[in-house]
Every structure is written in C-alpha cells, then in structure tokens.
Amino acid sequence: MTSLSPNRDNLMQPQQVLAHHGKSFYWASKFLGAELADRAASLYLFCRFVDDLADGDLPDRQESLKDIRERLEGKNIAAGLEVEAFINLANDHNIPLSAAIELLDGMLSDQKPTALANEAELLRYCHAVAGTVGLMMCRVLNCDEPRADSFAIDLGIAMQLTNISRDVLEDAKMNRRYLPASWVNIPPEQIADADVACQQQVAQAITALLDLSEHYYASAQLGIRLLPFRSRLSIAIALRVYRQIGWVLKRRKMVWWNGRVIVKGSEKLWLSFRSIADLWPKKVPPHHAQLHQHLKGLAGVQPR
Fold first, then answer.
1. pLDDT digits (tens, 9 = 90+) for 5-22
2. Residue 163: which H helix or E strand, with range?
3. Full-model pTM
C-alpha cells in the first residue's frame, strides 16, 4: 500500500476525531462511560479513515482500499496504523472481520460513478457501508444477545438512508446518485447543478428515502432493549438525534439544493431526555424479516 499523506486526523486521538467529524455520535458517546466510549471512538476512527480515503483525491486510493481489504482477509500486507489498531480491536472484542471486509467493498464501489437502479441496490449499499458498522458496534458495546445483530443492522441502514438524504447535492457533485432510478431517473450531473426542473422530483425521492428510513429506525428502536443497560441510552440518543436530521429536512420543505441541514444543540438536549423512555426492558418482538429481504447473504443477516 502506498503510504498516505499525513493529515490532521493522524495526529488526533479517537475521541478527538469523533468530536471533530461525528458531532452527533460524539454527543451520544458521552453517555457510554469512558471505557465503552473509547472503544466506540476507536471503531469510528477506523470507519472514518477508510471513508476519508474513499472520498479523497489521492490517485492511488483504490489500490489502498484493496490493500486494506486484503489485510483484513489475513494477508501480510502493510496497511497503516489505523488498520492494525482496528484489527487489534476486532480481536479483543470478537468483531466479525467479514463485516469490515464488506465495509471496504462498499467503499470500493464508490470509486466509480454511482447511479443505483432500485431499492434493493440501495439497501444492499446501505448495509455495506453502515449496516456493517452497526454489527461491529454491537460487539464493541459488549452485546452478547444474538438477536441484537438484526436490529443493529437496521440502525446502520436507517442512518445511512438519512446520510444520503442529507448529502444528495454533495454526492451528486462527486458523480454519485444513491436515489434509485426507479424513483428518480435523473443523472448526477443534473442534480449537482440543482436544476430547477429537477428540484421537486428529487425532493419527492428524498421524501421516499426518509419514509423508508422510518421503518428501519422503528425496528432499531425496539432492538435497543437487547443491549446491555449501560449502552442503551447512548444508542437511543444517537438514533433519535440522527433521525432528527430527516425531520429537519422535512421541516425545511425538502430544499435539498441549499445544502446540508444540522440538528441544533437545543434539539439534541431535548431528544436526549426523550431517549430515557427507551431504557427499560420491554418484550422485544421477533425481527421483521421483510426488512432484510434484499440483504440475503450479507454479513450478519440471518437466513430465513
């Protein structure tokens, strides 16, 4: 692997990287306690590292991503301190490397122009780049309840659907359209121009995206009660704060062409108080298999 150029994140501790890049997650991590928060931040650091590499402008980024993937498969390839630190984390906490490998596959898919065809492609992509992270986070948080995996995958997918809805304009400028053609068959370059002729069509597709995310958020919210008690509040807060991004976008009449929306600090505080209701055990129903109908064969997905 060609050595990467130094950047600010190489000089920062995991918690600092989380605070700088993942403000919603950093807020939620404050409720985990020091040890679990450090583990969660270490996982975030690895995910952020490969994400920045995938979205960066290094000419050899595809080769570098392939090298990281091969290192995760067990090959003796130099892949950087961040990767070795993650492998140690995975070994210590039984994180399935199959999930990390699938994450790299998702990042590699972003190295070419993206125009997804249908909802199935969208959900498989969301599983690759975020459902896998939910699966890995389960291990980091000491969850030994096998049923929790399916709900953790749903939270990752829901958050990625929110990400896509927030970043439609930015993604289009990188020649990526994650909104399925079956919803809106407009080329990324036209979306990147925020052409008036396509604004409402894209807004309708984003609305459909957020409606889809609600099914996955609702499932994930049920599954929170399968986590160890110490972890529940943090994950409940992360869910509610991230979900709020979509609601802010709806509140602003879906004006996606104005760029990213954010959740204000006062809203985060209010959502944190609301999350207390998610702490106490209730009977968790079986996972809704229909949510994973397009995900067969992927990491952590249970055969039906």
1. 434 455 455 555 555 455
2. helix 148-166
3. 0.91
